[in-house]
């Protein structure tokens, strides 16, 4: 489906020729995000250089009914930035300026294309940091973080993106600007639209300016690694730490399979014979961190840890984290393909769900590595498969879906931090009634009456459910018209 | 405007006669909330006994186009529970059961009529508490707290209601049930409707079941009182405490006028000659609280405090808090009437705004006492007046409006914790563009297409702006039809 006549010319007039991409070989860069199983080439990619230019682009989209998909760094894992073939991609790559650093008010104002870690870099000299830390934080953007309500290992204590965005200027699908929140910490005016926009996965508009809360770098940080002979024992330690009233900034568990893969890849020196490794990070005032470190040590020993290492310096800590941070990449050495699932379960249900994952893994004959944010019950099972082997893509997808169903059955939810996107839209009815989905859609229509903002994402398109992704497979959204997609 | 024929009978058939009130002398109880300047007698009050009964009531309202106003304990200060004369009040007073206490998962499930403090009472034996603590917490309900996104003195560290509600079952204006959130800590599925519903002031539906996060009682709590010779010096101490990276659970300032009124009423023994009193509360692990207490002591002395008292035991601490907690009531001894304003300013702008409040007070010849949550810049100026003196009601309202305008001008916002209600609806355009308000209204319509849920609140009704409240004054909403009100 080609774009309407004159549309690209109007974009070029608004932005300048060099910022409107239509050559197929350049468009290929944008054909998927971190969910590489599905692809779709957009009709056009634009790179606006200001909020006003984003408004101009969306006004043209509204005028001609052209769908648009916003894109940060393209690191999302649920296909939120997957293009639609008859639409455009609006990249925020050029909107990468830090507009204001106000340390006294503990606020930073940034454009949406600023990389997550660059916010911390801009304030580090003042003793501050930006807390949400998705693993892709070197490159992923604040705009993408806002769209996905991104988390990270340290969100257990420090909260998610939604807890750190205090204001945003958002261009709505008709090109008008909505200003929400601002300088003050407090504020209870009107509906909390900022809360709906954070995590809306690009379906309500495009943020062009974001105000973020920054946090003081803690006086002391300690990382502890405890080795256990079972994942259950590590999980038990986590429960006891929580019950003791300790709030670590991170609690991460890796299972034996993941430990081995990480050890082979990076040689972080994980203890021999460990069937589970628990990483606990404590931060805060020195005296408190010291107390908590001793308490966590004792709790882990009581729960059966056979080895505990404690690191206080930055380099030593980095070594303990190395295997965890590289765990996904290490899977690339073990398996040609893998699929990262993202589900949440109540912490008390972790052992049950892990056993269920093991059963499912056996049933489908595919290995599953487990890495998880244990403190908040956010699982990241890694389903390993080989797309070259007939039927494995389908089996991997089925296995991953069944793992997600097990999370929901246990009273959990479909995603902790990766979003719904196209990947999990078809699972939404397992968690929400038809009625709930209808209300979601009505709220979405309140922002986007024409259904041009990232259509086909989040809310399921029943006709497509059951389709299976594959390497370089074109996404079936391409086969539907705009009305059916929304 | 009478109710449609048969409507009251249908209500009685659904709930039982005794839970449908139509006698004028009993209806009088419900003619206002904590904003007593405006009154309106509803046509009927219902007291449903279950979520299913709330559904039945709202189905009837939708069938006949009858507006409804939800009511908790009626302690709200912005008129959110002000009835509409041709509508009904849905009281949640009978929905007062705690349904589940799950200490391991740190969750409590309650009905909306449970009093705030009763949640803490239900979990105190396990070493937990419910953190948001509005001053009315003895009686105000969780349903009302959810509607208003209530705060309290300790929200500086512990967060607002929105940070503690993890799930809710909400009856929508057509009587259908919407289930949001649930057991898990994390969760990133679909639009964050829970975030929109918390703080929606009864305009989107009625919560019939609420899941709350509970928090461990800290190991140590210390309250410090520091006396200063000026409010500026006390404000300076607050800035320095924040800059030192200390996060107290509360930081409250009272000005000289309020101190005197509290001293005369309760004799808490505030230091002689204090022009400002700063209360700082620290909680957490003992070692950290001790460190912070010493640091706050030093900072306050550096900032010019001439006397500092430190209390660790519960009784001693209660004595220091006594004057603050009773400050509003103490005004009743000094002035026949007072109006509590609620505005927010960036913390760095506090001194400027306080000076402006002093000027405005002189200009209008009315006294203003200042009590504020200094840590998060939430002001509560108390405008004193005498309704019996001709013109004072109007002057008090004008003065309060001008104080609010000064907050907005300083980059703040219209309300920190009391909500918009009817009281501040007309000030919304000072903070939001016409376009912003239109989006708010569209979101509201997504939940409430007929405009029957608490009409006339939050979004301004231009024809009514400029009308002035008075003692026992009927609210002008009465004079408008439903369509114009929404």
Q: Topology of this protein?
A:
Two copies of one chain form a homodimer.
Chain A lengths: L6 H9 L4 E2 L2 H4 L10 E2 L4 E3 L4 H14 L3 E4 L16 E4 L6 E5 L4 E4 L5 H8 L4 E2 L12 H7 L6 H4 L6 E7 L5 E5 L11 H5 L8 E8 L1 E2 L3 E9 L2 H13 L6 E6 H11 L9 E9 L1 H17 L4 E5 L2 H12 L1 H8 L2 E4 L2 E2 L5 H15 L3 E6 L4 E8 L6 H18 L24 H14 L25 E2 L7 H4 L1
Parallel strand pairs in A: 2-21, 3-5, 4-5
Antiparallel strand pairs in A: 1-3, 6-7, 7-11, 8-12, 9-10, 9-11, 13-15, 13-16, 14-15, 14-19, 17-20, 18-20, 19-20
Notes on the protein architecture:
The structure is a homodimer of 486-residue chains. With 486 residues, chain A is of the alpha+beta class. Chain A is 34% helix and 20% strand. Chain A has 16 helices and 21 strands. In chain A, strands 13, 14, 15, 16, 17, 18, 19 and 20 form an eight-stranded antiparallel beta sheet that branches. The first copy, chain A, has a five-stranded antiparallel beta sheet with strand order 6-7-11-9-10. Chain A is globular, with a radius of gyration of 23 Å. Chains A and B meet through strand 10, helix 7, helix 8, helix 10 and helix 15 of A and strand 10, helix 7, helix 8, helix 10 and helix 15 of B.
């Amino acid at each position: 489906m080609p774009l309407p006549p004159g549309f690209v010319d109007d974009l070029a007039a608004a932005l300048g020729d060099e910022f409107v991409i239509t050559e197929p070989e350049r468009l290929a860069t944008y054909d998927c995000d971190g969910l590489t199983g599905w692809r779709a080439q957009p009709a056009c990619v634009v790179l606006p250089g200001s909020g006003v230019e984003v408004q101009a682009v969306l006004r043209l989209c509204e005028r001609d009914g052209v769908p648009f998909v916003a894109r940060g760094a393209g690191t999302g894992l649920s296909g939120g930035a997957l293009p639609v073939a008859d639409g455009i991609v609006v990249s925020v790559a050029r909107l990468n300026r830090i507009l204001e650093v106000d340390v006294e008010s503990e606020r930073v104002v940034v454009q949406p294309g600023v990389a997550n870690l660059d916010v911390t870099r801009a304030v580090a000299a003042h003793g501050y940091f930006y807390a949400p830390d998705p693993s892709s934080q070197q490159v992923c953007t604040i705009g993408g973080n806002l769209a996905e309500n991104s988390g990270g290992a340290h969100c257990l204590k420090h909260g998610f993106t939604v807890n750190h965005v205090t204001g945003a200027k958002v261009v709505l699908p008709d090109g008008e600007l909505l200003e929400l929140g601002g300088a003050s910490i407090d504020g209870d005016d009107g509906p909390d639209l900022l809360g709906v926009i954070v995590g809306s996965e690009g379906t309500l508009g495009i943020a062009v300016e974001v105000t973020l809360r920054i946090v003081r770098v803690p006086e002391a940080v300690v990382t502890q690694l405890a080795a256990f002979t079972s994942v259950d024992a590590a999980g038990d330690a986590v429960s006891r730490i929580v019950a003791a009233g300790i709030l670590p900034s991170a609690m991460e568990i890796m299972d034996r399979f993941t430990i081995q893969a990480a050890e082979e890849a990076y040689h972080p020196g994980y203890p021999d014979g460990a069937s589970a490794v628990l990483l606990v990070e404590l931060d805060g005032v020195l005296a408190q961190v010291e107390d908590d470190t001793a308490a966590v040590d004792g709790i882990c020993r009581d729960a059966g840890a056979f080895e505990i290492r404690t690191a206080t310096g930055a380099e030593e800590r980095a070594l303990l984290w190395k295997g965890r941070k590289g765990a996904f990449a290490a899977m690339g050495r073990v398996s040609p393909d893998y699929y990262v699932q993202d589900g949440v379960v109540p912490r008390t249900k972790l052992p049950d769900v892990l056993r269920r994952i093991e059963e499912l893994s056996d049933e489908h004959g595919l290995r599953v590595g487990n890495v998880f944010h244990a403190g908040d019950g956010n699982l990241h099972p890694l389903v390993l498969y080989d797309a070259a082997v007939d039927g494995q893509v389908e089996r991997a997808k089925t296995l991953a879906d069944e793992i997600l169903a097990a999370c929901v059955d246990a009273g959990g939810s479909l995603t902790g931090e990766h979003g719904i996107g196209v990947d999990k839209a078809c699972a939404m009815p397992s968690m929400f009634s038809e009625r709930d989905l209808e209300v979601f859609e009505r709220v979405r229509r309140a922002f986007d009456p024409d259904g041009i903002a990232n259509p086909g994402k989040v809310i399921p398109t029943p006709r497509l459910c059951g389709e299976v992704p594959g390497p370089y497979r074109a996404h079936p959204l391409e086969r539907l018209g705009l009305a059916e997609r929304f």
